[in-house]
Design brief:
The complex is a heterodimer of chains A (about 290) and B (about 775). Chain A is mostly helical. Chain A folds into two domains: about 45 residues; about 180 residues, Orthogonal Bundle (MetI-like fold). Chain A has 13 helices and no strands. In chain A, helix 3 packs across helix 10. Chain B has about 775 residues and is α+β, with helices and mostly antiparallel strands. Chain B is about 25% helix and about 30% strand. In chain B, helix 18 packs antiparallel against helix 19. The longest helix of chain B is centred in the N-terminal third of the chain and has 23 residues. The chains are: A mainly alpha (about 290), B alpha+beta (about 775).
């Protein structure tokens, strides 16, 4: 008995020691996250209850102001709409391309071509975009040659769809690479066994490929979601602080609030946004964990 | 495992080295050397101690008020001489000091032939004390440039050199005089043997002073970059700026030597050098410019700044620097001309003496920030520094052609700086979102400060940003009045917006964007509703009526109607489209039927000339949807996070003093009433013996001449009453203005209907307004 007891104590001590070592290993990065993310975030939460410049306590007034602000509502609406439309389309198109390329013997080369848009600087993209879609730009010029009336593309509802296509074009290659990595992880033995049992291409895709790509889907969804926020760069470079209302995103609002010293509203909106994002990501993770 | 210990030890060592190197990189270099490159004669100081050693400025009491100083020089015998003209009686003479400038005595006046019945244009001293004078004389009714050589005792002899007229088709490279004759542009007397003369055609003549023969002619006429740029003669070297470098010529041989690129680039960066002097026969030189005094050894790779012009009177925008005399390495004299409060030109001698125990940097720093360059602020800073010698005022202009930033970028950077505690102390709020800044508590209340100053101001303008509690966080120091000038066919005084817009041909040949911008001021103020959103119906009405009055767009109209004006002291400023002044020529030439815009300076002679040229010409408030509109200018606000609030308050107080208010550099009327009167009464043109005037020439070459004259009392009263009647502050929001101008231009060009444009304006602006 005594021997057994001392053995347990020893293993507990070992576990403690191991845990301590583990903690020490993650300590540097944890410190980084703490200093650069958690502490600033805590300060943002603190500021969301204070005045903009004078720092007096205002309770939840900033939250009320932000939630009642029509610019905030418009930005949230546009950001949500953009995300809800873009992400499913991007994921599906990328999956289709990835599967096709995976089967092709030239897949590797074509995959690199899809990655090209990611290598282009946002400023160059914006310049080309401006050249194309300006009211006196190339697109209108080509249309006029075909006797079709032009349009001020960036100052009407079409601005949203231009942004949409731009996002898909730019992120497609990245998602294809991620899907292809997922596809490479599926053992060819499973397909061979299925084919021996008489399964066709469609059945292989739905019953082997898709179920095995579930873990990749979570990563791709989260990354696409985060990348969707970067589309602001192009929108800002082309249309400035105040673009057409259909592409007025959260980042436009934050950008303009910063310029106007509205740190109170910025802090409250940032807290709201982070809570929503965190909740969405947690829900997504949970749903995946449950399915797994 | 065998090498595990060694690997760990090596890793630890490398990490320790890395940390040490990082810390060493963060520390300041402790060698005590001044890294800025200045100064000759500057003492080095131990690490951690304040750098010491600076040239101190004093204005010499010469016992005379000079109207002009032609030259100052240290002679070979060690005495100092000034060639200047007494402001009171206009007599030109020579003053000498044998005690390094402490006392001066008049040794002779220039002979009658040099100054009576002629105009002494230029004069230069030689090292021995001879003077060469360029005099404009009327001979047989024709003006001629004549050179005189005045010896050390003051006896004048006419030189037989005749300034050649240009042959062939080559034209003047600097500016074409009305008489179309050659004149002397610059004159220098580097040694007793040679006089260097530059004419307006870009030729430099090296003239023998004893027999007036031309030894060499240096030709910088058409085709040479150097034409029109300044020349400097020092020792045996002729220096000529060519836009990128300084060309050097040996005056003994007339041959070009290797050019001085470093000298040329510094010359351009600091504004052209006004004067150059040497202490070692031309081996090295001292150069004077508004940026300060610089030392350069020929063949060197850097120029050393000995004196920083921003820390003293050298950088005053309204002053002109005319001569430099090096007494020794630690003492020098500078001749400067400026206009005093009576607007009479006054020249003085500034002495700079090196003080080894004075801190190199000034103790206090005041940071002033504006989006656009403001000449009045620049000049006020210089004058303020005279009273506050321990204060360094750093004036930061955010928008320039060099940095390529836009207003939004600048404002974001400003926000960061203010919130980080490194922001400016004083903000010139023109073009910034003033009301947002007030609302957010970015600006301090100035009401007590203004009460304390007790000046007599246009209260209607001064109090324009006053809130319900009486707080004034932003205060305009100047203002513009939107006005219109036209014949009775196109405008009647007192006419309202609707009546004016029904007239035809009032805006022919005008650029659509400019028209929208000018009417923005008088109409935009009427668009904002109480909840700060814009009234859609009023914008539609504005665009509809403006389009009807404007008529069909002519693609050939000129879009650039800006104009460059010379400021006092030689600086230049560009008057933009919105300025009223620019339209005078267009109105006179008949290109335009009306001239309207922002009125911020009154020259009665010009105003009268234009009115007389028009049929029943008149000038009055510009019609608009809002009445009695004014545009605040030089709007001042002190940052609530200012590090030097007392200093900022002292400067604001100074900006509202009469001395600062009476500075006029095309930046709007002063808000102080006495200064306003002084700005419009034309008192400087009151001397009947001095005919002051000028002229314009239009694109067809037609000339319009005017004489400046004092403004009649009834006109002064009318303008004062107009200023007092102003009650509506123009909507000053650059975001809305940009959108309105963009859409309004499309309406006037016929690309959009007024309703469509209004929709676009409302859509964009409403997001901005509800943010």
């Amino acid at each position: 008995m005594r021997k057994k007891f001392s053995g347990k104590r020893k293993s507990r001590k070992n576990n403690k020691h191991k845990n301590m070592r583990g903690f020490l290993w993650i300590l540097p990065s944890f410190l980084g996250v703490m200093v650069f993310y958690l502490l600033p975030y805590a300060d943002v939460v603190r500021r969301s209850f204070l005045g903009a410049v004078d720092n007096r306590f205002v309770g939840i007034d900033n939250y009320k102001t932000v939630l009642g602000n029509t610019a905030f509502q418009l930005a949230v609406k546009n950001t949500l709409l953009f995300t809800l439309l873009c992400i499913p389309v991007l994921i599906i198109v990328a999956l289709f391309c990835a599967v096709t390329l995976y089967k092709s013997k030239y897949g590797g080369i074509i995959k690199s071509a899809f990655l090209m848009p990611m290598a282009l600087p946002a400023v160059s993209v914006a310049l080309v975009w401006r050249l194309l879609f300006h009211s006196q730009g190339l697109l209108n010029h080509w249309l006029s040659n075909l006797n079709i009336a032009g349009n001020d593309w960036m100052n009407n509802g079409s601005a949203f769809w231009i942004l949409f296509v731009s996002y898909i074009w730019k992120n497609l290659g990245y998602d294809i690479v991620l899907w292809m990595a997922g596809l490479a992880g599926i053992s060819s033995n499973i397909y061979e066994a299925a084919r021996v049992d008489g399964a066709g291409e469609r059945q292989c895709f739905f019953y082997i490929t898709l179920p095995n790509l579930k873990s990749s889907l979570y990563t791709i969804t989260v990354l696409s979601f985060l990348n969707s926020f970067k589309v602001f760069r192009e929108a800002y470079l082309v249309a400035g602080d105040y673009p057409h209302e259909s592409i007025y995103m959260m980042q436009h609002l934050f950008n303009n609030w910063f310029r106007q010293f509205s740190f109170d509203k910025m802090a409250a909106a940032a807290v709201l946004e982070s809570v929503v994002l965190l909740t969405l990501i947690m829900l997504l993770q949970r749903a995946w964990d449950n399915k797994a | 495992m065998k090498y595990g210990k060694w690997k760990r030890a090596l890793g630890t060592l490398l990490a320790a080295i890395l940390i040490c190197v990082s810390f060493a990189g963060c520390s300041k270099g402790g060698d005590g050397k001044d890294s800025s490159g200045d100064n000759q004669g500057k003492e080095t100081q131990p690490a951690g101690e304040q750098a010491v050693g600076r040239f101190l400025e004093e204005e010499l009491d010469t016992g005379i008020v000079f109207g002009k100083i032609y030259d100052v020089r240290k002679l070979e015998d060690g005495s100092l001489r000034i060639v200047g003209a007494d402001r009171d009686n206009g007599n030109a003479g020579v003053w000498e000091s044998s005690d390094a400038g402490k006392t001066w005595k008049n040794i002779y006046n220039l002979p009658a032939e040099v100054q009576s019945s002629s105009y002494l244009h230029l004069a230069a001293l030689s090292p021995s004390g001879q003077i060469v004078c360029a005099v404009d004389k009327y001979i047989s009714g024709e003006p001629h440039s004549v050179l005189y050589l005045v010896d050390k005792e003051g006896k004048a002899n006419e030189m037989s050199f005749e300034l050649p007229e240009m042959e062939g088709e080559g034209g003047p490279t600097v500016s074409k005089p009305m008489e179309e004759r050659n004149i002397v542009l610059d004159l220098q007397f580097p040694g007793d043997n040679w006089v260097m003369l530059e004419d307006i055609y870009g030729k430099v003549y090296q003239i023998n002073s004893s027999d007036s023969s031309v030894k060499y002619t240096y030709d910088f006429t058409v085709g040479e970059m150097a034409a029109g740029f300044p020349m400097y003669a020092v020792g045996d070297t002729l220096l000529k700026q060519d836009g990128t470098q300084v060309l050097c010529y040996d005056m003994q041989t007339g041959e070009q030597e290797s050019s001085e690129e470093v000298l040329g680039q510094n010359d351009l960066q600091n504004g052209f050098f006004s004067a150059i002097d040497t202490l070692d026969g031309g081996e090295s030189i001292y150069c004077l410019s508004k940026g300060g005094v610089y030392y350069y050894k020929f063949g060197g790779s850097v120029m050393e700044q000995l004196i920083d012009g921003s820390m003293n009177s050298l950088g005053v925008p309204s002053s002109a620097l005319t001569a430099l005399a090096m007494i020794d390495e630690r003492n020098l004299l500078v001749a400067a001309e400026s206009k005093d409060s009576s607007s009479e030109t006054r020249a003085c001698i500034l002495k700079y003496t090196y003080s080894a125990d004075t801190p190199a940097k000034l103790e206090k720093e005041l940071k002033v920030f504006s989006l656009y360059d403001n000449s009045e602020i620049r000049q006020s800073i210089s004058l303020f520094k005279k009273e506050h010698t321990d204060v360094q005022v750093n004036y930061q202009v955010a928008l320039s052609e060099d940095n390529g930033m836009n207003v939004s970028d600048v404002l974001k950077a400003l926000t960061t700086e203010i919130m980080a505690g490194n922001g400016p102390d004083l903000l010139i709020l023109d073009g910034m979102p003033v009301e947002t800044y007030i609302e957010k508590g970015v600006l301090k209340d100035l009401s007590a400060l203004l009460k304390e100053s007790g000046g007599n101001y246009f209260e209607n303008i001064l109090n324009t940003y006053q809130d319900a509690q009486g707080q004034m966080c932003a205060v305009p120091a100047r203002f513009w009045i939107p006005m219109i000038q036209a014949g009775s066919k196109y405008f009647e005084p007192g006419e309202d917006f609707n009546a004016f817009m029904e007239r035809k041909d009032t805006m022919v040949n005008m650029d659509p964007k400019m028209v929208v911008e000018k009417f923005w001021y008088t109409c935009g103020a009427a668009w904002q509703k109480e909840d700060k959103t814009l009234d859609e119906s009023k914008i539609t009405e504005f665009l509809t009526k403006l389009k009807n009055a404007y008529g069909e767009y002519d693609p050939n109209v000129e879009s650039d109607n800006s104009m460059t004006m010379t400021l006092e002291g030689g600086g230049m400023t560009e008057l933009t489209n919105k300025s009223f002044f620019v339209g005078n020529i267009k109105l006179l030439s008949g290109d335009w039927n009306t001239n309207f815009g922002l009125y911020g300076e009154l020259y009665y002679g010009i105003q009268e000339m234009v009115n007389e040229a028009l049929e029943n010409g008149n000038i009055d408030l510009m019609p608009g949807q809002a009445d009695h509109v004014f545009v605040p200018a030089m709007v001042l606000g002190i940052s609530s996070r200012s590090a030097q609030p007392e200093l900022a308050e002292a400067f604001v107080k100074y900006l509202f003093s009469q001395e600062a208010q009476q500075i006029l550099q095309y930046g709007g009327f002063p808000v102080e009433k006495e200064s306003f009167r002084s700005a419009i009464d034309g008192h400087q043109y009151g001397d009947p013996d001095r005919d002051m005037g000028g002229g314009f020439s239009d694109s067809n070459g037609r000339e319009y001449l005017y004489s400046h004259k004092p403004t009649p009392e009834e006109e002064i009263t009318r303008m004062t009453e107009l200023a007092e009647s102003l009650e509506t502050r123009a909507l000053q929001d650059d975001v809305i203005k940009e959108v309105v101008m963009e859409q309004g231009e499309k309406v006037l060009k016929g690309e959009l209907s007024p309703e469509e444009a209004t929709g676009a304006i409302i859509q964009k602006v409403n997001i901005y307004l509800v943010e």
